[in-house]
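hey m, so remember when u said the tokens were messed up on ur end? i reran from scratch. heres the input so u can diff it against urs
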Amino acid sequence: MSLAAAYGTFRTSHVASCPDVAPECANAVIPDHLHRVRLNLFHTDLSVSYGWTGSRLVSLRVPYDVKDQRVNYRTLDGQPYAPPYGDIHHRTESPRGIGDGELDVSFAAGRDWVLGAGVTLPFGHTEPDPIDLGRRGLKHEHIQFGNGTFDPTLAAQWSRPFGGVRLGASVDARIPLYENSHGYRPPATVRWAAGPSLALGSTGLSAQVAGQYQAIGKWNGEKDEGTGFHNGGAILRASFLLGKGWRVTPGIYREIYSHSLSDESFRQGATYSVVLTRLLAR
């Protein structure tokens, strides 16, 4: 069993333009302006895994998120701006809720490999099409807690000792195959990590480079402004045995690069994490 928690800050911005930004464009001159959003994300997930025959593992993971959003509007030259359509697009708020769960099975494939496959469970709250609502001048929500779809997942891990150091690498993917009931086609996501780890008695240290690629999601065939990027950075972790099967693992991630696949900019601040694990053996 493990309980993981992480906290990080994400900043996004995009240019809003007429005629798509609001119906008020038909009656007023609305200059191009910036929607700037800062999201403080507190993420937790509870995982329970059961291993048998020494080489197989089935796992269930359920996340819970608090998404503290802060919004401001600016002109393109950086001055504060109060749009005539109000806060229909974004607002300062702190929504929270359960996210999509994940059920997967993994197995050892030879000496160095672990392979896995599974499916996400659509526990997370979803929203109606924000693009359509925005064009009609109606308040809407861009933040979702799930995809609303059962998505296949694939994973692979490799590790091998070299002297006193173990080198490892991992990759996992979430591959949505269809639209949810609101017409949302979630983006495919691929995450990867690689680096060395070192055991010093009951203490472990690891350093990895890691990254994520997310394709562009679609609302009834139109681009979802909050998706589509790839980024990467460095992760440092330490692991400490607390006794009686308990282990705690703090970590920190620092982004090195980020690139958006759409008109939206994306930056991730320092992200801090801690994982508490309890191993039970028969």
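this time it looks ok to me. The chain has one domain: 49-65+98-278. if urs says something different then somethings off w ur setup not the seq
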